[in-house]
TrEMBL record:
Upper lineage: Eukaryota, Viridiplantae, Streptophyta, Embryophyta, Tracheophyta
Family: Belongs to the cyclin family. Cyclin U/P subfamily.
Gene3D superfamilies: Cyclin-like
Keyword Cell division: yes
GO biological process terms held by the UniProt record: cell division
PANTHER family linked: CYCLIN (PTHR15615:SF80), PTHR15615
Record's keyword terms, sorted: Cell cycle, Cell division
Superkingdom of the organism of origin: Eukaryota
Keyword Cell division: yes
Protein name according to UniProt: Cyclin
């Protein structure tokens, strides 16, 4: 994979970037609003993708991120759990969303209820390591995510290679993903992979179709 086409050095904390989502704003329960926005988006994608897989000839690519059955926790509950115990910055969830999008586009997998939880815990952990000054180790994240440390280590390596180790996110890309979630554009585009004209990161999320 090549480098991002729009690279901007981050000269201030990414939470301070005026993206319009107010990344640190809280909902009625006192949680960062980005958590509910992201969970709503991912739940919509999973529902749409599973409907497509059930009604079409498309075959799902099975990876190490797939479980035998869907976890009992919903996506919203799982994201809330990760935030509560990882204590990572809210912006890590936007970064994790960007990483998942990159991973999906490089591997052509569909986001489903069998893989979204493992992708979430892995992407948030990688984002926290890259973005935050302080973060927990893999063993801790494994307990938070309900996995063994050995499994999470394997997921992390698979994820990093799928990203081609492209972990940098420029300010423009971060702002695009924030705006995407805030405006809830996924309502109209969740099932259309090519709804974005440009496949670079600055064209925003394309995991919407996977």
């Amino acid at each position: 994979m090549g480098s991002l086409s729009l690279e901007t050095d981050i000269l201030c904390p990414i939470d301070c970037i005026p993206t319009g989502i107010y990344i640190t704003s809280k909902d009625s329960l006192g949680k960062p609003r980005v958590l509910s926005l992201l969970s709503t988006f991912l739940e919509s994608c999973v529902l749409q993708n599973e409907r497509v897989l059930e009604t079409s000839q498309a075959k799902e690519l099975i990876t190490i991120f797939h479980g035998l059955r869907a976890p009992s926790l919903s996506i919203q509950q799982y994201i809330d759990r990760i935030f509560k115990y990882s204590r990572c910055s809210p912006s890590c969830f936007i970064i994790a969303h960007i990483y998942i999008d990159r991973f999906v586009r490089s591997t052509s997998i569909y986001l489903t209820s069998l893989n979204i939880h493992r992708l979430l815990i892995t992407s948030v952990m990688v984002a926290a390591k890259f973005m935050d000054d302080a973060f927990f180790n893999n063993a801790y994240y494994a307990r938070v995510g309900g996995l063994s440390t050995k499994e999470l280590n394997k997921l992390e390596m698979k994820f990093l290679f799928g990203l081609d180790f492209r972990l940098h996110v420029n300010v423009h890309t971060f702002g695009k993903y924030c705006s995407f979630l805030k405006k809830e554009k996924f309502v109209d585009s969740c099932c259309v992979k090519e709804s974005w004209a440009n496949k670079d990161d600055h064209s925003c999320t394309q995991s919407i179709a996977r």
